[in-house]
Write a structure and sequence with these properties.
Helix content is 28%, strand content 26%. By secondary structure, the protein is α+β, with helices and mostly antiparallel strands. Helix 1 packs antiparallel against helix 2, helix 1 runs parallel beside helix 3 and helix 2 runs antiparallel to helix 6.
């Protein structure tokens, strides 16, 4: 799903980019120009940056490499540094982005492929940003859980054999050590061995700070419409709750995901009495979803 926030701005480039690259470059240009010219409200500026990241990820998926965008982004950065802040085209691009943001922030949910964002019922504890993984050995969810004003980065899991892990760690490629991540296309299964590419020498490990036993649904609700009813009128939105264990992960864990390729994995290692169990999650558009659920409420505020 393409983000609603558009960021059209003039960028001088040496050749014609494809449409995905062009969208990413235009959003990046406006985000960079806004840093200097303060064209947008703070919330709209966050949304434009998130929109750039989503467009960047789409371009990476299409091109198969993270490096294809680099020369375009360098030209956009240079153009933003020299653009007159009162240029009519730049002001028009900012107005368009600001108007688009008003509609974007009012959406209750955002589907980002592997991740789902939810801004509805802001005072209720719920999955605000979630990626679900279901295997024969376990059901698990990684993401932000809580109210919109107080959501924590957590992982929750239920194991088919009744195992109760005593700790959990999020494993993330160390981008300062390894420049490119492994794109693992193997089926996602709970494994007793660390997935390919995740060694102690190349991986950052973030240990959960707290744990708790919970009872919660670990599979996404089936939605045929916003109310959760099928075409025949039957309710299909309710997901069954399971006994599960919750682990709260440090904020530094998701910050380490920022430079990663959207196609690569992060891994949760659940430490059990009989040894660790590993489950893979896709980086995807996590940062775009994170921004979506952290934007201020559109009610009673200047957007």
């Amino acid at each position: 799903m393409a983000m609603t926030v558009a960021a059209f701005a003039p960028v001088c480039v040496s050749a014609s980019p494809d449409s995905l690259t062009e969208t990413a470059v235009k959003r990046y240009f406006l985000a960079q120009a806004d840093v200097r010219c303060h064209l947008l409200t703070p919330a709209a500026s966050m949304a434009v940056t998130a929109g750039y990241l989503q467009a960047r990820n789409a371009s990476i998926r299409a091109s198969g490499t993270m490096g294809a965008l680099t020369p375009w982004l360098e030209q956009a950065r240079a153009a933003a540094a020299n653009a007159p802040c009162d240029a009519p085209q730049l002001r028009a691009a900012a107005t368009q982005a600001q108007d688009a943001y008003r509609g974007f922030v009012a959406q209750p949910r955002l589907d980002l492929g592997d991740w789902t964002g939810d801004r509805s019922y802001p005072d209720t504890s719920a999955w605000r940003l979630a990626q679900y993984q279901s295997t024969s050995g376990a059901d698990a969810v990684l993401g932000l859980y809580g109210t919109l004003s107080d959501a924590r980065f957590v992982v929750m899991a239920h194991f088919a054999d009744g195992a109760r892990p005593y700790s959990a760690r999020l494993l993330v490629r160390n981008a300062d050590v390894v420049s490119a991540g492994l794109i693992n296309r193997a089926p996602r299964e709970l494994s007793p061995a660390a997935p390919l590419g995740f060694t102690s020498a190349t991986t950052l490990s973030f240990t959960a700070r707290d744990s708790a036993d919970v009872r919660i649904a670990l599979k996404p609700e089936v939605r045929s419409n916003e109310a959760g009813f099928s075409l025949t009128g039957g309710f299909v939105g309710k997901a069954e709750a399971d006994d599960a264990v919750r682990f709260d992960l440090p904020t530094a864990a998701w910050r380490a995901m920022a430079p990663l390729d959207p196609r690569e994995d992060v891994v949760v290692a659940f430490d059990c009495d009989d040894g660790p169990r590993y489950m893979r999650f896709t980086v995807g558009d996590f940062l775009t979803g994170l921004t979506f659920v952290r934007l201020p409420s559109p009610y009673g505020q200047r957007l």
